[in-house]
Specification:
Helix content is 47%, strand content 15%. The chain is α/β, with parallel strands linked by helices and 271 residues long. It is globular and about 60 Å long.
Length: 271
């Protein structure tokens, strides 16, 4: 069911790789709600993914961009406004990569060159994106920026290694830039801390399947799906959440507030 929540709004959606990715679901939901947007991803990710299928489905254009490059981000915001016919109303930051995770390097043994690369791609890219947008005055007043994060930024989850620190930085950037952009242009910036989700990236983490089942058994509502996350992002892009900013919003079926569930205790044989 569509409510036309984003009718007349223009945006940029990053990180759509394939039909399993949250960004892909967000793009579909934004399209259903009347929003128009450009899609962007790094050139290498575009070669690996199926973004052209999504572009055709949603009538969107694709602008390749390396999110670590200020020049390419400047080009992204410039061309987006030309294509869409005006300033931007919403941005989805769905960018994350850890070479240390890909190579199964444990946290105490992190490769620092890999770590720095992960920081640049997964966290500093948000700061660069916002800095470029503010300098260009590319986002309309009351615009909305949403970045996807994960609760390993606040709790120890060993398999998440350096991405835990990187997501903590991402959330801090959203809070701090949210103050400055909100003061200057009423642009709101939030992070969404999503449940473990069976995306291509998630499935690539060692032990992810077992952890997914564990969190699903603890969360009173179960794990939140990518589709539900997309709905939440649409709400944050819409005018219904005009006064929500600088927040880290848990979208996890209640997992973050639950110590343990009866289901898990029963599985452990507790009385």
């Amino acid at each position: 069911m569509s409510y036309n929540l984003l009718k007349g709004k223009r945006g940029i959606i990053t990180g759509a790789l394939d039909a399993n990715s949250i960004a892909w679901k967000v793009a579909e939901k934004v399209h259903e709600e009347g929003g128009v947007f450009v899609l962007t991803n790094a050139p290498i990710a575009m070669r690996m993914g199926e973004i052209k299928v999504l572009a055709a489905k949603t009538g969107s254009e694709i602008i390749p961009a390396d999110a670590t490059s200020v020049d390419e981000l400047t080009n992204l915001f410039t061309k987006s406004q030309e294509i869409l016919g005006g300033k931007i109303d919403f941005v989805l930051h769905s960018i994350g990569m850890s070479v240390n995770i890909r190579k199964n390097i444990p946290y105490p043994e992190l490769n620092y060159d890999f770590f720095q690369k992960g920081i640049d791609i997964s966290a500093l890219s948000l700061h660069k994106m916002l800095q470029v947008a503010m300098k260009m005055d590319a986002i309309n007043e009351w615009g909305s920026v949403v970045a996807l994060t994960y609760m390993a930024s606040q709790r120890v989850l060993p398999f998440y290694t350096d991405m835990a620190d990187i997501k903590a930085m991402l959330e801090s950037i959203a809070r701090n830039f949210g103050y400055y952009y909100g003061t200057k242009k009423k642009v709101r910036i939030n992070t969404v801390s999503q449940s473990p989700t069976k995306t291509t990236a998630g499935n690539g983490i060692k032990g992810f399947g077992d952890f997914y089942d564990y969190t699903d058994a603890i969360a009173p509502l179960g794990n939140a799906s990518a589709e539900d996350c997309a709905n939440f992002c649409v709400a944050l892009f819409s005018d219904l959440t005009r006064m929500v900013t600088m927040q880290n919003l848990f979208h996890d079926g209640g997992y973050s507030s639950t110590g343990v569930s009866t289901e898990v205790l029963n599985k452990l044989g507790a009385e």
